């Protein structure tokens, strides 16, 4: 759980992001005899939702981004935050087809922020648009990478909010990336697709005035990645992941027979942001040229 305070213009607001654990997850913890956390009683079904909502009310953040809200927990959290905390649920999306039936949601203080427009999406649905070359690969490791990424239903919800105190707009977003540490390259692709879909959302809903700065984006979530060395963290903080990074698909899945050029928003052709999945080719990262091996 993380709470961040950010000053837009002359004002200050707080942003909370928290993976609250879906019901099946915490029930597995309770069933595990090795789980001896002294706060074990707080996870008991009779107490958990009360403790969760009370803690959110005590933190009293201006914007709340939650992950792993499931069909059992979301109604209680929504009702309590709206009736007792002055919140409004801005956007929510639940994966009804997965066993956990969980997803993400964003709440904001109704007297502080005005929701202008929202979006909810799964990263896998943008594969064909942004990684078209990968979709053409039907076999081998490239085909496996496409299929494995395509079947993951990880999602993101986002909202364009207007600060009632300053008149400034900002985008609040939350996501939950694939969990398995065995597939960091899938998480990296999801982070890239997430970035591109958020870029589309902003460009579709803000004026294209070159003299007006685009809204700030605050992305909070469970990325199942650790700073500072994970590829996801590097991509989101530096807009660049080199092909020799140990979590890049080139390093994890050598032998692909396709080239993927994927540029993060704001980058340009020839920059070091390019991702390349190549056979028998290495990159000269200084000048962007390719040399046969």
From TrEMBL:
Q: Which InterPro entries match?
A: CCR4/nocturin_mRNA_transcr (IPR050410), Endo/exonu/phosph_ase_sf (IPR036691), Endo/exonuclease/phosphatase (IPR005135)
Report domain Endonuclease/exonuclease/phosphatase positions. Answer: 16-238
Report the domain of life of the source organism.
Answer: Eukaryota
Q: Which GO terms describe its molecular function?
A: 3'-5'-RNA exonuclease activity
PANTHER family the record matches: CARBON CATABOLITE REPRESSOR PROTEIN 4, POLY(A)-SPECIFIC RIBONUCLEASE
Can you name this protein?
Protein angel, putative
Species source reads Perkinsus marinus (strain ATCC 50983 / TXsc)
């Amino acid at each position: 759980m993380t709470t961040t305070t950010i000053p837009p213009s002359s004002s200050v607001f707080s942003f909370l992001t928290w993976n609250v654990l879906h019901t099946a997850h915490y029930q597995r913890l309770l069933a595990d005899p090795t789980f001896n956390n002294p706060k074990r009683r707080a996870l008991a079904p009779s107490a958990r939702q009360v403790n969760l909502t009370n803690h959110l009310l005590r933190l009293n953040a201006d914007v709340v981004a939650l992950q792993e809200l499931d069909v059992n927990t979301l109604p209680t959290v929504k009702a309590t935050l709206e009736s007792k905390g002055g919140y409004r649920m801005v956007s929510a999306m639940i994966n009804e087809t997965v066993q956990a039936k969980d997803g993400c949601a964003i709440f904001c203080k109704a007297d502080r922020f005005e929701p202008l427009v929202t979006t909810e999406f799964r990263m896998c649905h943008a594969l064909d648009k942004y990684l078209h070359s990968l979709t053409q690969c039907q076999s081998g490791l490239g085909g496996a990478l496409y299929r494995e990424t395509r079947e993951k239903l990880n999602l993101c919800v986002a909202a364009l909010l207007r600060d009632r105190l300053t008149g400034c707009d900002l985008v609040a977003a939350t996501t939950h990336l694939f969990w398995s540490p065995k597939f960091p390259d899938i998480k990296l692709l999801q982070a890239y697709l997430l970035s591109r879909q958020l870029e589309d959302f902003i460009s579709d809903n803000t004026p294209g005035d070159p003299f007006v700065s685009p809204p700030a984006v605050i992305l909070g979530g469970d990325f199942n990645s650790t700073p500072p060395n994970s590829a996801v963290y590097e991509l989101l903080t530096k807009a660049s992941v080199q092909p020799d990074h140990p979590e890049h698909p080139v390093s994890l899945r050598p032998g692909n027979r396709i080239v993927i050029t994927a540029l993060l928003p704001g980058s340009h052709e020839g920059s070091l942001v390019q991702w390349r999945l190549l056979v028998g080719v290495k990159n000269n990262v200084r000048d962007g040229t390719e040399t046969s091996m």
